[in-house]
Amino acid sequence: MIEGDPALRVVEAAREVGASRVHVAADYGPYGHRRDLDVEQALADAGIELVRTGSPYAVAPGRVTNGSGAPYRVFTPFSRAWAEHGWRAPVDAPADVSWLALADTVAIPDPGLPDGIELPEAGEAAARRRWLDFLDERVADYAGDRDRPGIDATSRMSVHLKWGEIHPRTMLADLARRRSEGAATYRKELAWREFYADVLFARPETAREYLRPEFAKMEYDEPAADFDAWREGRTGFPVVDAGMRQLLATGWMHNRVRMITASFLVKDLHVEWQHGARHFMRWLVDGDLASNQHGWQWTAGCGTDASPFFRVFNPTSQGRKFDPDGAYVRRWVPELADVDDPHDPTPETRRRAGYPAPVVDHAEERREALARWERIRG
């Protein structure tokens, strides 16, 4: 491993092997983009060229702009322009490479994780195998089932995209060969990933700050005991606790539940979104800075295509709507596995099961959240 100033170390390495060019996959994150510019300048000063041979996106951030050449701030027009812009076809793998057989030849070391921690299988072969399984078994039903955390309806490909084990152009090419509502919906989800990357590239400060600065004036509470209960899955709201426990156990959380848990933190506990986003980035194995930070801002009402702040998710009704048979809650909140209504257990049921009472009254906190919002509206 080479440590130290990236610009100096890359120049040293290039000189050591007599390189005239250094090829990289372009990084469009705030830190990575600045680093690449510094490396490029240092290499140029040494008479060496930096060549950006690709990126983790079908269309690199900054290339899709509106009629005046400005970046888009709303998803729908971006997605149309993104599709019209198009992308190169993926490079096919060599004919003698069997993706499914390759995994059997690679020994994956034991990461030494605590008992009970689950992590997805890593590597290009694992990514391809999971993707093909999704295309064969679940993509046709994806549009209707993707919001159901209690069933295996999503692709779980976000971790492979995060770590560069599959390219979105490969996925888009495969989706183009399937004419179904599910394939079209999945393509839209890939567009959201590219949109958020584009927004962060245009506004790098939004990795930590508000896209809509007026929301920084909102009155928030300092993280306290209720924040700890949220992080540990002890809020007394079953679908929230299920999601937070899934995150700690697997490094992943269903996207619908990400929205529910985020709304609960910001609008029921009145904790600023950055605290939750930081917790997610610490634990998510698919933690993508652009998607995570702007997903949180969307839920908090201060981002792109923002969910209006007055749209406050009711965790109980959300749980019943998207986990109607309670399978998701029963799996991740085993205290409630055998109760009649895992989404709203009675006080007596909670006592017998050893499950906590709700940390807040949702109706009261909804009113409080809206009152705080009204105060910044002027």
Task: Write up this protein.
This protein is mainly α. Helix content is 51%, strand content 3%. The protein contains 18 helices and 2 strands. It has helices spanning 6-17, 30-45, 75-85, 99-102, 124-137, 142-145, 158-162, 168-176, 181-202, 225-232, 238-250, 255-268, 273-283, 289-300, 315-322, 327-332, 347-353, 362-377, and strands at 21-25, 49-54. Strands 1-2 form a two-stranded parallel ribbon. Strand 1 (21-25), helix 2 (30-45) and strand 2 form a beta-alpha-beta unit. Helix 1 (6-17) packs across helix 2 (30-45). It starts with 5 loop residues before the first helix and ends with a helix.
Strand content: under 5%
| CATH fold assignment of the largest domain | DNA Cyclobutane Dipyrimidine Photolyase, subunit A, domain 3
Rg, Å, rounded = 23 Å
Residue share in helices?
40-55%
Largest sheet: 2 strands, parallel
Mean pLDDT level: 91
Q: Name the structural class.
A: mainly alpha
Instruction: Strand order, main sheet: write it out.
Output: 1-2
Give the total of beta strands.
Answer: 2
What would CATH call the architecture of the largest domain? Orthogonal Bundle
Low-confidence stretches: 93-115
CATH top level class name of the largest domain: Mainly Alpha
CATH superfamily of the largest domain: DNA Cyclobutane Dipyrimidine Photolyase, subunit A, domain 3
Span from first to last CA?
Answer: 54 Å
Q: Order of helices and strands, N to C? A: HEHEHHHHHHHHHHHHHHHH
By DSSP (H or I, 4+ residues per run), the number of helices equals: 18
